[in-house]
Amino acid sequence: MKSLIDNARSFATTHVADPQNAAAFRALGAGQSPDALFITCSDSRVVPALITGARPGELFELRTAGNVVPPYPGPGAEPAGEAATVEYAVCVLGVRDIVVCGHSHCGAVGALVRGDDLSAIPAVRDWLEHSVAPDAAVRSLAPTSADVAEAVQAHALAQLERLRGYPCVRERTADGSLTLHAWYYEVHTGAVLAHRPPSEQPPPAHAPGEGARPAGVRPAFGPL
Fold first, then answer.
1. Which residues are CB-contacts of 31 (< 8 A; sequence separation ≥ 6)?
2. Residue pair 35/97 in contact by the 8 Å Cβ criterion
3. Cβ burial 47-83 (10 Å sphere, 16+ → b, else e)
4. E-strand spans in the chain?
């Protein structure tokens, strides 16, 4: 904790007061205009600004256990901070992009695919039971590797579909002013992959004389 406190104490003088940064920080007092909403896991190994190089004011963030996007609350439902964050980003701040970024070795997704007993952490158990549908693809996948990459990627895509059910997102994607993205971050290598719909995937490379591979064998996620 000491290093965190030391950096917090010196932040204003070492960063904000630096002539190269001072004007940008002063401008933040007038408001914010972020380019994107970045939805990711609360995991301490995932640092959105570090991964993207975003400076203050450029990235609006929503962090939840397992980068879960809960259903949009219907009439009479309890208000949800996650839905409020998405709605504010889209309707008030006018972000042009939303990124849902899953990550390797995700504890929440790992628990889902392994069917872990979460009775000792009932808030986590109830969050996942409420927010991840019983028939969600991630629940039917086997943990084929320690990083649960396949399950994390399927889960990120499911959160994009959940976002499409938000009225504000549906309206903005329909008129082309908002784009949704699914990313996958490898915590142990720093690699970032993005989902490519089949229509956007490049033709697969193959050796001379070799027939083209079927489209289905290409991974859905590839380099940015």
1. none
2. yes
3. ebeebbebeeeebbebebbbbbbbebeeeeeeeeebb
4. 36-41, 59-64, 97-103, 179-185, 192-195, 221-223
Compute CA 73 distance to the chain's CA centroid, rounded to the nearest angstrom: 20
The pair of structure tokens assigned to 120 is 């000792």
pLDDT in tens, 145-167: 889 999 999 999 999 999 999 99
30: left (phi over 0), alpha (psi -120 to 50) or beta: alpha
pLDDT tens, residue by residue, 69-110: 999 998 888 889 999 999 999 999 999 999 999 999 999 999
CA dihedral defined by 71, 72, 75, 79, rounded to 10 degrees? 90
Judge contact between 223 and 201, C-beta under 8 A: no
pTM (two decimals) = 0.87
| Among the listed residues 149, 136, 153, 116, the one whose alpha carbon sits nearest the alpha carbon of residue 71 | 136
Cross-strand pairs, 41:
64
Q: What is the C-alpha separation between 1 and 134, in angstroms, rounded?
A: 40
> Residue 35 carries which DSSP code?
S
8-56 confidence digits (pLDDT tens): 999 999 889 888 889 999 999 999 999 999 999 999 999 999 999 999 9
Q: Taking 70 as the threshold, does the pLDDT of residue 181 lie above it?
A: yes
- Which strands form 97-103's sheet, in the order they lie side by side? 59-64, 36-41, 97-103, 179-185, 192-195, 221-223
